[in-house]
């Protein structure tokens, strides 16, 4: 997924997930609570909640933490989060989408704007860059569950539209309305996926030079580390040389 996938792989190889484990759990818990509040607290009856729980399990979040997050949805703790999408341009004009959950819109908007400005980019109006992305379903499996050909065959049979298989795993894309159906079919064959969710997939990824690429990755990392930010997507592609440099 261009900037998003490359960023995720770099952070994984750098051990970034372990360094911010508590922050990761906090974001996952927030998504679980919001999903449970919006629908039923039963993941079998609430696709968004089920997706949130899958993501939590993939990060080895303890069962007790997951259950506490679900229970908070029916409590009266006063926590209410707004879901907001920010769109902007990073260094080199790369398009970036930021999804956030916040209990203070002004604080979050100010922080996100400052990250874009400091990087040499700028925050834009909602809709300014999202037309360059498609909203699609996304299912992720580890590389060890199947070889590329087997995964491709199973995914197409399940109704998926595209599969990207690398040494890091399998990324399956489908129409957003088919996400639950595709996930269920693949889960029956390969077991529980690492992720099943809606994402922003760039229509035409744009290659950037290494200097711009480093600036973009710093911006992505700053955004990702903000407490209110749930997901960050970009439409840029890094060179293999820069990928090696940043993970080596």
TrEMBL record:
It is found in: Cytoplasm. Residues 81-236 form the TACO1/YebC-like second and third domain. InterPro entries: Integrase-like_N, TACO1_YebC-like_2nd/3rd_dom, TACO1_YebC_N, Transcrip_reg_TACO1-like, Transcrip_reg_TACO1-like_dom3, YebC-like. It comes from the Bacteria. GO terms for biological process: regulation of DNA-templated transcription. GO terms for cellular component: cytosol. The keyword Cytoplasm applies. Signal peptide: none annotated. Keywords: Cytoplasm, DNA-binding, Transcription, Transcription regulation. GO terms for molecular function: DNA binding. The keyword Zinc does not apply. Residues 5-76 form the TACO1/YebC-like N-terminal domain. Belongs to the TACO1 family. This is Probable transcriptional regulatory protein SAMN02927923_03584.
